[in-house]
Specification:
The protein is of the alpha+beta class. 37% of the residues lie in helices and 17% in strands. The two termini are 22 Å apart.
Amino acid sequence: AVLDEDPWGAPLPEEQIARLWEGPIHWFSDWPVGDVQNVGSLVYTIWDRSGLFVYVGISGRTAQMSPRSKGPLGSILRHARGGRSGDQFLIYVCGRLVLPRRGNRISEIADGSLSLDREPRNYVSDNLGFRWIGVASPAEAFAIERGLQAGKATPPGRPLLNPQMAILIGR
């Protein structure tokens, strides 16, 4: 497993980064999981049960935490709870992974009898898990996320739901 330099040229720690695709996986179906750090910054990858690299994200974007913040666990907790509002990952899951499987039920979606919040939550719980690493700063988390989105890690390549195309075009 090799991770090239990040988009700005700083070398990334290979052994730590490799845990994002080789480390223990925490299935959302087993939620809650107890070992996600609750301070600092982290990078996480989301995988389906077949081993497909679905998404990369960061949490703990600022050094200061608000009193209402859940810390780095907050983003992963939102993904586990399943509400699409304010969660880009769940919007992607709904649009790319759930709706194509629900095409013949558009009238139920339209009349509200099929919830577009419940369906992504169920999909995440039934099919997805995550790996994570703690990092020193939000800037390091962002650089690692962008590097993985650009496909600079071999494996796993670029994520299905949020590949970074702009970085590839500029290189």
